[in-house]
From TrEMBL, chain A:
Its main location: membrane. The keyword Cell membrane applies. It holds the Pfam family PqiA. This is Paraquat-inducible membrane protein A. It is found in: Cell inner membrane. The lineage of its organism: Bacteria, Pseudomonadati, Pseudomonadota, Alphaproteobacteria, Rhodobacterales.
Length: 212, 211
């Protein structure tokens, strides 16, 4: 497939008076509401859609606060109960000498969520302002955020498996804490924020600046 | 450039990421077409993909049934033992306020992956056999693509690995048949998703539905 008009301003579906479907790539008439091929809803690449990104991102941030405050795990061994927060779990893994796994959990539950919040906010801001990172760089950033976002759910699954497995009556029992719920919500909200972001805005922003 | 009347939209493809227009050409199997502007893969057809995707989705569905029913992990310490199936992991949050999370975990690791295999089978199996697409094939495939990020079977398997390390010091853990079924399921799913070339599937669905 070659591009008709490979000279600098690339001809886009919008520029040619059509709308492209983000799900299947079909070129639709400009007033289409659903794609003629796959019948997905067609949304215009309007910066107003960023409001949804900001709303989900705010929800994700809010849910991330209790996820760090409340315990993730409640461990009972021989009648003695201890509670572990997100960071507490990482510290414990490291103190047991499980550096590899400790590092994985640290990256999955602390580094990735925080980096995701920053990355999505940066992408949303850069649509309206000139960005230091070019279109290609921001596209890569967006793809990384979309790919990696789901993996934060690993913490919730670990808690689920541990709680199901370690139920040895008096000897040892692990139960989930309140943070598991808010962490799962935070991950889901951030995934929705990334999905609400329209990558066409990364590319069309340049055109708008040139036109106006 | 602005004369929309001279452009036939059926001869064009818009890049789903950056909206750049491309002439819609037949891509030979095992070749990859990329967007000229942003580099997104536009088409990467594989020969016999429909048949392979159908077979792999059917395999994954059978493995999923095995993964849910058989014991997953068995833990033993100080003469006590506890057997957990995937169902137990789902029900771990089922008490009190955590119940909605239980439902969410059930959806993420069992129901959505299984629904996705069924939807792909429904949409693609008739085409693999050379028949007309089923009546709601378009809706089924659109749905399968939309829930893709929420089907988290492979993340669950890595979660199991982390959990095993955490309890390794506490007790002895044995892997049950369901663990291997689930691990195989993840591999099959990844191979299957690599064979799915969205634009090719959509084009085939559109052409066969019309004729």
């Amino acid at each position: 497939m070659e591009n008709p008009g490979r000279t600098q301003p690339v001809l886009t579906a919008r520029g040619a008076g059509f709308v492209g479907c983000r799900a299947c790539g079909r070129v639709n008439p400009p007033d289409a509401r659903t794609c003629v091929r796959c019948r997905s809803a067609i949304e215009p690449d309007d910066p107003a859609s960023l409001q949804r990104v900001w709303a989900w991102l705010a929800a994700g941030l809010i849910a991330y606060v209790p996820a760090n405050i409340y315990p993730m795990l409640r461990t009972t061994t021989l009648g003695h109960t201890s509670e572990n927060t997100l960071i507490g779990g990482v510290v414990e893994l490291l103190s047991h000498g499980a550096y590899g796994v400790g590092l994985i959990v640290f990256v999955a539950s602390i580094v990735i969520p925080v980096a995701k919040f920053i990355a999505i906010a940066y992408l949303a801001v850069s649509v309206r302002r000139p960005a230091a990172l070019g279109s290609h760089g921001r596209q890569v950033l967006f793809e990384v955020v979309e790919f990696i976002g789901r993996w934060s759910m690993i913490d919730v699954f670990v808690v689920a498996i541990l709680s199901a497995l370690v139920q040895l009556d008096f000897a040892a029992a692990i139960n989930p804490g309140a943070a598991a719920v808010s962490f799962a919500l935070s991950v889901a909200f951030t995934m929705l924020a990334a999905q609400s972001f329209d990558p066409r805005l990364i590319w069309n922003a340049n055109e708008r600046v040139q036109v106006t | 450039m602005s004369s929309a009347t001279t452009i036939d939209p059926t001869m064009l493809t818009a890049c789903p990421v950056c909206d750049a227009l491309h002439r819609d050409q037949e891509v030979p199997p095992h070749r990859t077409a990329r967007c000229a502007r942003c580099g997104t893969v536009l088409a990467a057809p594989r020969s016999g993909a429909m048949t392979r995707i159908t077979m792999l989705a059917a395999t994954a569905l059978i493995l999923m049934i095995a993964a849910v029913l058989f014991p997953f992990l068995e833990l033993s310490a100080q003469g006590l033992s506890q057997r957990a199936s995937v169902l137990d992991a789902v029900l771990a949050f089922s008490t009190g306020l955590m119940a909605p999370l239980s439902l969410a975990v059930a959806f993420l690791i069992v129901l959505l992956p299984a629904a996705r295999y069924l939807a792909i089978l429904y949409a693609l199996a008739p085409m693999a056999l050379g028949w007309h697409p089923a009546r709601h094939a378009i809706a089924a495939f659109r749905w399968a693509e939309r829930i893709k990020p929420w089907a988290m079977a492979e993340i669950f398997i890595i979660g199991v690995a982390v959990a095993l390390v955490k309890v390794a010091g506490l007790a002895r853990v044995e892997l049950g048949p369901a663990f291997w079924a689930f691990a195989a399921l993840v591999v099959v799913t990844i191979i299957k998703d690599n064979y799915i070339c969205r634009p090719t599937v959509w084009k085939t669905l559109e052409e066969r539905s019309r004729s």
